[in-house]
C-alpha cells in the first residue's frame, strides 16, 4: 500500500477527525475492504471498522456488494452537484416532472445491494411521499428497485431476487415495457412508477420515479404516468 495516510497528512489536533479523514481518503483512492483500510491507515481493525461504518451511515462512504468501501453519495451532495452531470440534469428535469404529475419525484442510483436517493422534487402542498436525499433503500421492493435490478449484472440480480418481493419474471416484464410500478411494496399506502435513466453509452445509471398515496394515484400508476416518466428519462439522458 505504500505510505500510511496518517503519516503523510497534516494533523488537525483532533484525533478522531484525522483518523476518519484518513479512512475517507484511503477509500477515495480505490475501493477497500477492512484489511486494506487497516493497512492503508495504520489503524486497528476495530477502529477502522467503526469509522468506516460511521462514514457509511452519513453517506460519505458506501459499501458495495463486494464488501469494499468507496466514496458515497453525500460527497456529491455536499459539492452542490456540480461534479455530477446526473445531478445537474436532475435539477432541470425533475421539477418539470413534478409539475406535470403533481406528485413526488425521486432519482435513485444503485449502490451495491441498496438504491440511494440522489435527487428529489416535491410538490409545494398536499400529502407527499417524501424521501430525503441520501436515503438508502433496499433493492428488494419498490418500482425503483425493480428498474435498477432489471438492468443490473447477473450476480446482483441473483442476490436481489433471493430476498425480493418480486420475481425474475417481473424483471423480464420491466425490461420489455421499459418501466416498473409498485403498490404498497416498500411502504403501505404508497404507489410508484419508475423508468431507467441511461448514459450516453446506453447503460442504465439510475431510476427516475414518481410516487404518491395509493388513494390519489391509484393502483396502476404506470397507466397514468409512464409516458411522462419515459419522456423525463429521455430528457435526462439527452442532458447527460
TrEMBL record:
- Asked if the keyword Aminoacyl-tRNA synthetase belongs to this entry, the reply reads no
Q: Name one GO molecular function term.
A: DNA-binding transcription factor activity
Q: Which UniProt keywords apply?
A: DNA-binding, Transcription, Transcription regulation
For the HTH iclR-type domain, which residue ranges apply?
14-73
Q: Name one GO biological process term.
A: negative regulation of DNA-templated transcription
Asked if the record carries the keyword Hydrolase, the reply is: no
Q: Which SMART domains match?
A: HTH_ICLR
Q: Which InterPro entries match?
A: GAF-like_dom_sf, HTH_MetabolicPath_Reg, Tscrpt_reg_IclR_C, Tscrpt_reg_IclR_N, WH-like_DNA-bd_sf, WH_DNA-bd_sf
Q: Where is the IclR-ED domain?
A: 74-240
Q: Name one Pfam family in it.
A: HTH_IclR
Superkingdom to which the source organism belongs: Bacteria
Matching entries from PANTHER family are given as: HELIX-TURN-HELIX TRANSCRIPTIONAL REGULATOR, ICLR FAMILY, TRANSCRIPTIONAL REGULATORY PROTEIN
What's this protein's name?
Transcriptional regulator, IclR family
- What's the source species' lineage? Bacteria, Bacillati, Actinomycetota, Actinomycetes, Pseudonocardiales
Amino acid at each position: 500500500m505504500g505510505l500510511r495516510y496518517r503519516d503523510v497528512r497534516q494533523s488537525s489536533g483532533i484525533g478522531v477527525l484525522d483518523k476518519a479523514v484518513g479512512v475517507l481518503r484511503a477509500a477515495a483512492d480505490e475501493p477497500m475492504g477492512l484489511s486494506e483500510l487497516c493497512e492503508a491507515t495504520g489503524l486497528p481493525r476495530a477502529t477502522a471498522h467503526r469509522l468506516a461504518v460511521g462514514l457509511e451511515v452519513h453517506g460519505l462512504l458506501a459499501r458495495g456488494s463486494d464488501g469494499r468501501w468507496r466514496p458515497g453519495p453525500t460527497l456529491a451532495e455536499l459539492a452542490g452537484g456540480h461534479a455530477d452531470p446526473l445531478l445537474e440534469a436532475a435539477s432541470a428535469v425533475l421539477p418539470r416532472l413534478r409539475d406535470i404529475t403533481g406528485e413526488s419525484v425521486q432519482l435513485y442510483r444503485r449502490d451495491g445491494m441498496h438504491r440511494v436517493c440522489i435527487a428529489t422534487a416535491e410538490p409545494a402542498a398536499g400529502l407527499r411521499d417524501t424521501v430525503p436525499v441520501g436515503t438508502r433503500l433496499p433493492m428488494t421492493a419498490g418500482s425503483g428497485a425493480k428498474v435498477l435490478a432489471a438492468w443490473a449484472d447477473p450476480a446482483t440480480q441473483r442476490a436481489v431476487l433471493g430476498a425480493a418481493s418480486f420475481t425474475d419474471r417481473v424483471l423480464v416484464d420491466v425490461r420489455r415495457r421499459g418501466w416498473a410500478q409498485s403498490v404498497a411494496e416498500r411502504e403501505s399506502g404508497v404507489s410508484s412508477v419508475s423508468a431507467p435513466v441511461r448514459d450516453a453509452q446506453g447503460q442504465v445509471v439510475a431510476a427516475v420515479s414518481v410516487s404518491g398515496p395509493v388513494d390519489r394515484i391509484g393502483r396502476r400508476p404506470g397507466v397514468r404516468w409512464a409516458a411522462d416518466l419515459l419522456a423525463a428519462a429521455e430528457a435526462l439522458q439527452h442532458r447527460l
